[in-house]
Amino acid sequence: MKEEIVLVTGASSGIGEACARKFAANGAKVIINARNATKLNALKKELEVEYNAQVFVLPFDVRDRNAAAKCLDSLPESWKTIDILVNNAGLVIGVDKEYEGNMDEWDIVIDTNIKALLGMTRLVVPGMVERGKGHIINIGSIAGDAAYPGGSVYCATKAAVKALSDGLRMDLVHTPLRVTNIKPGLVETNFSVIRFRGDKEKADNVYKGIRPLTGTDIAETVYFAASVPEYMQIAEMLVLPVHQASGTLVYKENN
Q1: Can you tell me the distance from the alpha carbon of 28 to that of 85, in angstroms, rounded to the nearest whole number?
Q2: β strands within 193-247, DSSP E
Q3: Residues 98-115: what's their mean pLDDT?
Q4: Catalytic one of 154, 207, 223, 231
């Protein structure tokens, strides 16, 4: 993975942070993006000290396409040739029924999970095509396979990630570029805290009675997909805890 330049969105915590760590630990140059510049700078220092990694901080909100374009354009020449784009930034807010949901929150979820992924793809992939080298790794979800109660909008966005990943793979079939959709099941990160609007107790209850996956687990799958020989393409990977069978069927001990 040495000399590869990897851009990870949503890298200030959870799966994104874990991906940045994994790639940095294996010699890649890592561009880390999120809104929180303080967290990004702290992560940069950690990666530099722990792995002697080369890290570039690029703080902007992925929903702001003008800011994204400006920040990417501001990269030094030695950082512009992005080899791997990890579209990780994503979220869900609330567990409301579809007819009772908050439309402003829907805008945030849709703009982050779909439009921002599209925007980053549009900004980064043309350079990959021009160079004849690149890999786009989208973080989808098992939620994209089937809707569940209280999650229809989020499920719709992750279904869109699958469709966008499949469509991009088709659009790039004449090139050496690869497209991967990683679909995690239950992963214990700050994700559920945001879903429950900051209620940590409710978030923790999601994982009681089952050993969930971690951000590090998903980073391992991302790295695996990026590390297979260039003639191979991991198109899609569904990654679940052993006691999860679908988006809604989960076995919990003492439950």
Answers
A1: 12
A2: 236-239
A3: 97
A4: 154
